[in-house]
Amino acid sequence: MKHLISLHETSTQEVEQILTLAAKLKAETKAGISHPLLKGKTLGMIFTKSSTRTRVSFEVGMYQLGGYPLFLSSNDIQLGRGETIYDTANVLSRYLDGIMIRTFAHSDVTDLAKYGTIPIINGLTDLLHPCQALADLLTIQEHKGKFKGLKLAYIGDGNNVAHSLLYACAKVGMDMSVATPAGYECNAEIVENAKADAKISGSNIVITNDPVEAIKDADVVYSDTWVSMGQEAEKEARVKIFLPYQIDKKLFAKAKDDAIFMHCLPAYRGFEVTEDVIDSAQSVIFDEAENRLHAQKAVMAILMA
Ligand code: CP
Ligand code: NVA
Q1: How far, in Å, CA of 203 to CA of 197, rounded?
Q2: 53 close to ligand 1 (CB < 6 Angstrom)
Q3: Is residue 224 lining ligand 2, measured as CB closer than 6 Å?
Q4: I want to staple 166 with a disulfide (CB 3.0 to 4.6 A). Which of 69, 129, 145, 194 is the partner?
Q5: Any residues with CB less than 8 A from the CB of 196 and at least 6 apart, and which?
Q6: H or E stretch covering 175
Q7: How far is the CA of 286 from the centre of ligand 2 (A)?
Q8: pLDDT (tens digit per residue) in 179-224
């Protein structure tokens, strides 16, 4: 494994390796055992979009691994003034041991990997959010103890989070149903790739416009914002279209009795999910947020040690 850009390009064995190391690092952190696996290493963190979890968990994670994180806002570096990805990748490769980038165009991330000589970690693009999906797998493993035989229902926008969950479920053999409004379905190429992976792992992927069909008998119910970063101008129109996809108590009740509720956060209560679901005892959103730290530490240790 050279980069973490898309879980489609990560093998099932590599996903398992990340989850195993993440669980170990989590237990050690809780026990106060230090693990300076990246002593003397540096991670550049380029942000073209806002972040709470990604920024803080990578920064703290790098510190806990004995390394040094550099926060590079695109407003402050020359990339934001038009310096090319080619030059940026070449220059930063001379200073750093790895780059985490959050940006709009997915091609910016693949170009960084193509032109640079150091590991690149995708911290979210318009297309994918692999670090989130790895933290989600770790959370599901903790709460359910397995992947095979489980069903995850994603209800809402066919966005970056949905795409990475499709790849993640397909890799580990978990069934996944996605329900989106017509016109807001997942990227067709991603669905095709995930279905190919699911065939190998033996899981089932269902794409529908019917939230009730998707959520039926689900073990894990997942939602994300209806308005992703960069779509703010579409907010009013989207809210109207997505309202039938709101996860409220009545819809959530159609999942299994012991279903868990997940959300990558930030969440907008009263839109994609109601308070009585996201703040209920079945919600594991803060375990999920915490697990960003542990999963990403494992990714960094594997790529950069
Ligand atoms: N879930 C997630 O990536 O959160 P941030 O946007 O706060 O980083
Ligand atoms: N789909 C959301 C995820 C935020 C973590 C976005 O891209 O804004």
Answers
A1: 9
A2: yes
A3: yes
A4: 194
A5: 170
A6: strand 175-179
A7: 16
A8: 999 999 999 999 999 999 999 999 999 999 999 999 999 999 999 9
